Amino acid sequence: MAKSNYITRAGWQALDKELKFLWKEERPMVTQAVSDAAALGDRSENAEYIYGKRRLREIDRRVRFLSKRLEVLQIVDYHPKQEGKVFFGAWVELENEEGEAKQYRIVGCDEFDPAKNWISIDSPVARALIGKQVDDEIRVETPVGKVLLYINKIWYETEN
């Protein structure tokens, strides 16, 4: 399944901030540490040198990924026309058949976070929710089987 290129403004800013930190702060610091370690002599048994080079490769790989990804991401801002329906960026309160309610936010695949109950727009639940409104029900295929969910509430947090 192809991942979407949608992201919230705050999500884009967080990725951009990470890229700038890695490139302007962490990479120069690690480069200096590797240079200092190399000056100490034998590099084959120099742990600081070996780990520093490894960290530089990790930083460079992440910088390349972020640079390419930020170019193709499309920021989706809240619009008042979205009110009352589920669209990208929405918070949704869902209730299962047992009456248990849980809140989720629909975000881009680059910013989903299970700890915050942020689900990817590409997830089966999010895809089933798009365009729905309060009191609608959705059926979603999950790893434990088909689940029936009811939409109790929809709201948006506007970002500055």
UniProtKB/TrEMBL annotation:
Transmembrane segments: none
Domain of life of the native organism: Bacteria
PROSITE patterns: GREAB_1, GREAB_2
One protein family per Pfam: GreA_GreB
Residues spanning the signal sequence: none
Keywords carried by this UniProt record: DNA-binding, Elongation factor, Protein biosynthesis, Transcription, Transcription regulation
Record GO terms (molecular function): translation elongation factor activity
Domain Transcription elongation factor GreA/GreB C-terminal: 82-156
InterPro entries referenced in this protein's UniProt entry, alphabetically: GreA/GreB_C_sf, TF_GreA/GreB_CS, Tscrpt_elong_fac_GreA/B, Tscrpt_elong_fac_GreA/B_C, Tscrpt_elong_fac_GreA/B_fam, Tscrpt_elong_fac_GreA/B_N, Tscrpt_elong_fac_GreA/B_N_sf, Tscrpt_elong_fac_GreB
Domain Transcription elongation factor GreA/GreB N-terminal per the UniProt entry, residue ranges: 5-75
Family per record: Belongs to the GreA/GreB family. GreB subfamily.
Protein task: Necessary for efficient RNA polymerase transcription elongation past template-encoded arresting sites. The arresting sites in DNA have the property of trapping a certain fraction of elongating RNA polymerases that pass through, resulting in locked ternary complexes. Cleavage of the nascent transcript by cleavage factors such as GreA or GreB allows the resumption of elongation from the new 3'terminus. GreB releases sequences of up to 9 nucleotides in length.
Protein's recorded name: Transcription elongation factor GreB
